[in-house]
C-alpha cells in the first residue's frame, strides 16, 4: 500500500535532502524543525563525488556547482617556515564522473529549502519542537508530540500530535528521536580527549601564500586544517586544542594560536574572525538505526570527527539508502523488512569504513613527534608518496579511492 505520509524531524541538510527526494517520488512529507528558520552560519562543506550523485538525483547538483566551486585538491604540510608539502592529492573525477565540490552548508540548505517548498506534497514547519514519540512496538501509525508557539487566541504554546507511516530522525547529534528511543545518555562510542575549535576567517594573505584550497598541518601541538569555503575569500580554519578548557579560555587563546601557525604570523588586526565555535569530538554510533516505525539517519545515528568529511558524506549516503528503501515500500517493490537491511548496512559502513578512516584522519595530524616520523610510519602517507614517485601517468591510474559509503538498496527489491 502506498505511504500516506513520512514525518522527518530536523531541517538540516540531511532532513531537507530526504524530504526533497521523497516528495519528488510522490511520498507526502512533513518536515518539523524546532528552530524558527535555517541555520545560517557559514559552516565549511566539501561534498564528495558520492554526495554529488545524490544531489544529481534530487535535481540540485547544477545549482550547487554554480554557487560553489571545484577545489583543487588537498595537501598535508609541515609547519615549517615554507609550509612544505609532505604529500598531496588532486581533485579528479570520481564516482559518476563527479569531482568534489565546495559550498557552505547554509547555502546548500537554502537551495534545498527552496526546492522542497516547491513540492505540492511537502511542507516545512518551523518552530515545531518534538517532545515525545509513540512506543515503537505500537501497531499502525507512528506519531510525534510537538510543541509550537500558539496564537494569542490559543493562549500561548500549543501541544499537538502528528501521525505518519514512519518518523525519521534527522535532528542531529542531540537528536530527540534518538533520546526517546534509547534514553538521554545512550549513544555508544567515545569522546576524544582532544578538543576542536572551528573558525571562519577572512585573511587576505591566505589567498596569495601558495596554499591549496585545502590543507592539513601535521604537528603535535598546532595541528590544524585550512580550507577555502567561499569564492569571496572566506576560509575555514579548524585547529586542535587541549581538552578541559572553557569557552572563555579557548577564546582567549585563539589569537596566539593563529599567530603561531597561520602564514605571516598575523595579529588580530590582520584578519576578520567571522565565527568561533569550540566543540567536543565524538566517534559514536547507535545500536539500531531502525526501531519499529522510527528511523535514524546522519548525525542523529552516528558521529565522527570532521577531518576528511566522512560524517557529512556518510549522512548523505544514509539519506540515499533510506530514500530508496521508503520508495521500495511505497511502490510495493519491498516490504518494510528492507528497513532492517538499511539499519544493518548503514551501521556496518560506519563501523568498517567511516569510523576507522576518520579516526586515522584525525590521529595522524598529532600523534607523531614530527613530520619525518609521520612520513616514515604512517601507511597513508607512504602510499601517497609512492604514488607521487611513480612515472608520469602512473599516478592517475593508481589514484587511491575510498571504499564506497553509498549502498544500492534497490538490489533488495522484489
Automatic annotation (TrEMBL):
Cofactor: FAD
The keyword Flavoprotein is annotated on this UniProt entry: yes
Keyword Oxidoreductase: yes
Domain (FAD-binding) ranges: 5-351
Pfam family, one: FAD_binding_3
GO molecular function: FAD binding; oxidoreductase activity, acting on paired donors, with incorporation or reduction of molecular oxygen, NAD(P)H as one donor, and incorporation of one atom of oxygen
Keywords per UniProt: FAD, Flavoprotein, Oxidoreductase
Matches recorded under SUPFAM superfamilies: FAD/NAD(P)-binding domain
Highest taxon, organism lineage: Eukaryota
InterPro entries xref list: FAD-bd (IPR002938), FAD/NAD-bd_sf (IPR036188), RIFMO-like (IPR050641)
Name of this chain's protein: FAD/NAD(P)-binding domain-containing protein
Amino acid at each position: 500500500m502506498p505511504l500516506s505520509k513520512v514525518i522527518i524531524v530536523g531541517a538540516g541538510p540531511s532532513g531537507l535532502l530526504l524530504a526533497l527526494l521523497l516528495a519528488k517520488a510522490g511520498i507526502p512529507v512533513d518536515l518539523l524543525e524546532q528552530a524558527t528558520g535555517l541555520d545560517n552560519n557559514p559552516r565549511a562543506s566539501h561534498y564528495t563525488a558520492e554526495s554529488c550523485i545524490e544531489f544529481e538525483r534530487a535535481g540540485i547538483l547544477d545549482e550547487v556547482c554554480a554557487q560553489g566551486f571545484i577545489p583543487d585538491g588537498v595537501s598535508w604540510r609541515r609547519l615549517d617556515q615554507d609550509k612544505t608539502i609532505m604529500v598531496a592529492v588532486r581533485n579528479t573525477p570520481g564516482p559518476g564522473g563527479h569531482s568534489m565540490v565546495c559550498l557552505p552548508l547554509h547555502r546548500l540548505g537554502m537551495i534545498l529549502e527552496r526546492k522542497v517548498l516547491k513540492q505540492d506534497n511537502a511542507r516545512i514547519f518551523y518552530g515545531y519542537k518534538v517532545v515525545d514519540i509513540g512506543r515503537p512496538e505500537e501497531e499502525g501509525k507512528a506519531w510525534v508530540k510537538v510543541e509550537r508557539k500558539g496564537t494569542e487566541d490559543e493562549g500561548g504554546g500549543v501541544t499537538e500530535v502528528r501521525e505518519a507511516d514512519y518518523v525519521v530522525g534527522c535532528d542531529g547529534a542531540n537528536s530527540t528521536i534518538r533520546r526517546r528511543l534509547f534514553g538521554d545518555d545512550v549513544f555508544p562510542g567515545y569522546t576524544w580527549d582532544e578538543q576542536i575549535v572551528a573558525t571562519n576567517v577572512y585573511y587576505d594573505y591566505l589567498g596569495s601564500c601558495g596554499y591549496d584550497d585545502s590543507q592539513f598541518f601535521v604537528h603535535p601541538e598546532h595541528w590544524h586544517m585550512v580550507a577555502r569555503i567561499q569564492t569571496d575569500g572566506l576560509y575555514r580554519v579548524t585547529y586542535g586544542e587541549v581538552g578541559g578548557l572553557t569557552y572563555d579560555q579557548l577564546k582567549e587563546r585563539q589569537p596566539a594560536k593563529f599567530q603561531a601557525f597561520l602564514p605571516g604570523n598575523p595579529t588580530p588586526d590582520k584578519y576578520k574572525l567571522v565565527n568561533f565555535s569550540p566543540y567536543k569530538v565524538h566517534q559514536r554510533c547507535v545500536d539500531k538505526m531502525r526501531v519499529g516505525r522510527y528511523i535514524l539517519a546522519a548525525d542523529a545515528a552516528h558521529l565522527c570527527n570532521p577531518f576528511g568529511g566522512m560524517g557529512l558524506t556518510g549522512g548523505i549516503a544514509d539519506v540515499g539508502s533510506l530514500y530508496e528503501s521508503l520508495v521500495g515500500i511505497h511502490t510495493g517493490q519491498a516490504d518494510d523488512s528492507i528497513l532492517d537491511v538499511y539499519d544493518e548496512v548503514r551501521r556496518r559502513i560506519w563501523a568498517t569504513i567511516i569510523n576507522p578512516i576518520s579516526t586515522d584522519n584525525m590521529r595522524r595530524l598529532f600523534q607523531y613527534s614530527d613530520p619525518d616520523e609521520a612520513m616514515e610510519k604512517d601507511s597513508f602517507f607512504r602510499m601517497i608518496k609512492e604514488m607521487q614517485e611513480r612515472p608520469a601517468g602512473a599516478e592517475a591510474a593508481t589514484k587511491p579511492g575510498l571504499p564506497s559509503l553509498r549502498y544500492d538498496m534497490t538490489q533488495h527489491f522484489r
